[in-house]
Amino acid sequence: MKINRLLDHVWIRNLMGLAVLLAVHLLADIYAIGRRPGLTKVTPYFYLVLLYGWLVFHNRILFEGLFLRGRKTAYFGWLLLLVAFSSFNMNFILHTEFGISRSLPYIVSFWVYTVTGLGVYITYKYLRSLNQPATPASPPATLDTVQPVTSGPAPEEPASFLCMVDGERLDIAYPDILYIESLENYLKIFTKTKPYIIRLTLKEAEARLPRRLFVRISRSHIVNLTHATRADQDTVKVGEKELRIGKVYKRHVLEQLPG
């Protein structure tokens, strides 16, 4: 649909959101705007533009860039710092520039807008996820499902994991991957040199990785068999990191890993 294609463009989507916010405020302000002198007629609309800019920054940079990528401590730290700074700044401007002594309702309104904007953003992301083509679920492989080896040349498979990191194409060689951790709609790929965060689900990654090299050990982790050893019946050790094996995956994982 054309409307969906338009909403795929971030600038168009945000301009439409800003236009809706200004239009809703104008409908409530239509009778009072004519009685305000000078620049005070449009001052609330400058405030709404700044407010929308804050909502975009909070949702895209803080919430998506930190919270959804598993950096929740950093997210709440920055949020509390900006809450304190913004509230103090608003209180100062309302007192000195507009002569408003009771600034608390305005400050509370600002943070209600913030929570509402986050709710709209989460709803939008959820509705978009419903329209994405579903990846068929693949249960953990068992010995019963392993196909017999046939004669003839083996089909050629890629030697690296192709992904997008910060907008750039990156090929991560399979031997360099230690393990992969799920961060809801993101993955954190731990390699020999550094971790990478990509936008992909663990189920999608599992379908793309060769099963001869990688095994899913839980709802949150996939490990490289060449770097993993069994620590005990419930955990796998990859380097110095110990990862817990999920109950559903335990039998298959223990069969694949050396003792």
UniProtKB/TrEMBL annotation:
InterPro entries: LytR-like, LytTR_DNA-bd_dom. PROSITE patterns: HTH_LYTTR. Keywords: Membrane, Transmembrane, Transmembrane helix. It comes from Nibrella saemangeumensis. This is HTH LytTR-type domain-containing protein. The chain crosses the membrane at residues 12-33, 45-63, 75-94, 106-124. It holds the Pfam family LytTR. Residues 161-234 form the HTH LytTR-type domain.
